Amino acid sequence: MPTTNRIRLGPLYLAGFTTAFGAHGVAAALGVETEDIGLSLLGFGLVLALYDIAEVILKPVFGALSDRIGVKPVIIGGLVGFAVASAVGAFFPLPIWIGVARFAQGAAASAFSPASSAAVARLVDKSATGRSFGRYGSWKSLGYALGPLLGAFLVWWAGMPALFVALAVLAAAAALWVAFAMPSVPVLPRKRVTLADLGRELGSRSFLVPTLVLAATTGALGVAVGFLPLLATQAGLGPIGGMATVTVLALVSTGIQPWAGRRHDSGALTPRVGTSAGLVAIAAGLGLAALLPVPVALYGSAVLIGAGVGMATPIAFAHLAAATPADRMGRTMGSAELGREVGDAAGPLIAGAIGAVSTAALGIGAVAVGVTASAAVAATALRSPVRE
Fold it and tell me: Would you say residue 82 lies in a domain?
């Protein structure tokens, strides 16, 4: 990628890191500090869910808003909102206020996350879309990998407020960087859109198939993040060894995404091959964990899932960007992000529900079957990335 593109997209990479760090860092810290801050298990689950509930409701809304007023003000406003929400958690570390802070963080992330994806798509040439999304996704994966570690360190060092202060400072710095370094993206004239038009857009193959890919990758990732540490602990690795499986997964995804994006842009990795191969790798990793829950196999599972997520994600986003007119890029990215959130909720729910009445292996195996089916859909139904 040319140096000018990296400079322009740098603030967006930091924004992606911020939302990932905020999501996983606080979630992990809350798991450690639940008793100290007076949360019951029900309260703990509710506080965790508030972030995702806000994203499910608001991502399409803010995505559409970015088409109307421009992506830059939505990104800046979202980051400022994230900083303010984090400050609430820092200065009022009581359960009710932490819940308010988490919902507000999720609402703010709902603004700058899809708008950032739309900005990545519009700020670079079509020939560099894959590698741009690869780098953007790489920084988000880095946030997922480092979030729990940095969150645990900050909480150990100075308690829960320190983590929220760090997130506030990080979001404020990202907002300033976007304001001064990211070029404005012009608002394009928009044609009148009816509900029927919207239904056709969201029901088109060029939207549904890559969104299915993103939902499958995110759902499998949610299962891996929850179940790999559990299986690793049961296999005798202990809490640190269990968390290390998730770190390995995230680091592999971080390394693979830029490579997959470059291969996509050069034509060496087509959307059909890249997304289906990535999903097959994810399914293989889940199957390995389900069938052979021993330490070596679990780390191998983490590598396979990380590689699959890293391959499929930037290619699916690049396909969406190539198939979407610029004047509705924000709306499309917001709706696709909603699909990811649905997958993020459905994957662990399916694995947990089946595992509760049978075994964890069968629950994970059921998700692997679903991912395999998604791979088959991608291999047969994903068209070349042309706008419909």
Answer: yes
pLDDT at 6: 58
If DSSP codes are grouped into helix, strand and coil, which group holds residue 354? helix
- CA-based nearest residue to 220, from 119, 313, 139: 313
Q: What is the pTM of this model?
A: 0.88
pLDDT, the chain, mean: 87
Structure tokens at 287: 């199957």
The SS3 of residue 182 is: coil
- How confident is the model over 297-309, as pLDDT tens digits? 999 999 999 999 9
Q: Does any domain span residue 190?
A: no
pLDDT at 388: 42
DSSP 27-82: HHHHHHHTTTTT--HHHHHHHHHHHHHHHHHHHHHHHHHHHHH-HHHHHHHHHHHH
Taking phi first (over 0 means left), then psi (-120 to 50 degrees means alpha), and beta for anything else, what does residue 343 get? alpha
What is the domain extent for residue 76?
Answer: 1-179
Query: In this predicted model, what pLDDT tens digit does every residue of 5-30 receive, in sequence order?
Result: 556 789 999 999 998 888 877 766 66
pLDDT band at residue 95 using 50, 70 and 90 as cut-offs: confident
259 with 213, same domain: the answer is yes
Residues 206 and 334 in one domain: yes
Cα-based distances in Å from 4 to 125, 257, 259, 265, 326:
12, 20, 19, 18, 21
78/25 same-domain check: yes
Residues 289 and 301: beta-carbon distance below 8 Å: yes
Here the CATH number for the domain that contains residue 53 is 1.20.1250.20
* Tokens representing residue 187 in the block: 């608002």
- Residues in CB range of 85: below 8 A, 6 or more apart: 100, 101, 102, 104, 105, 107, 108
Q: What is the CA radius of gyration of the chain?
A: 20
Q: Let me know whether 131 and 251 are in one domain.
A: no
Number of structural domains in the chain: 2
111 burial type by CB count under 10 A (0-12 exposed, 13-18 middle, 19+ buried): buried
Q: How many residues are given for the chain?
A: 388
